[in-house]
Amino acid sequence: MISKIKQSPVFLVKLALAVAFIMHGASKLLNIGGTAEFLQMSAMVVVIIGLLEVLAGVGILFNQTAKYSAYVIVVIMLGAISMMKYKMGYLGGYELDIAYIAMALTVALSVGCKCEDGTCEVKDEQSERVQQEEKLGQDLE
Q: Is residue 129 assigned to a domain?
């Protein structure tokens, strides 16, 4: 576990975000009626949001789906702010939602980065392919 944290400083952010969204989504799905009444939404909307939260939470842990899952989290949080929390103000309202958005964007922007010795490089697959093709062409000459 420690070596994973050293390899990717974003791992802790991914883990915290995953746990939060899996738990929030599961709590909605385990109490659909109560959540629907509290949020003043239909049960179907609560189920959809709950499923999206759980799936995004799980997806954030896997590099192949982390970027898309992070963007789903951003959309969910923007919806929560605009529909429910904006009128409550920043403190005691949407400050945690802003933190979740920042965490999700950190994850989305870090996908494809190679971090070593405290420095991070963006791994650009297209430029790597071009470099490999150029090297192959030089080897054939």
A: no
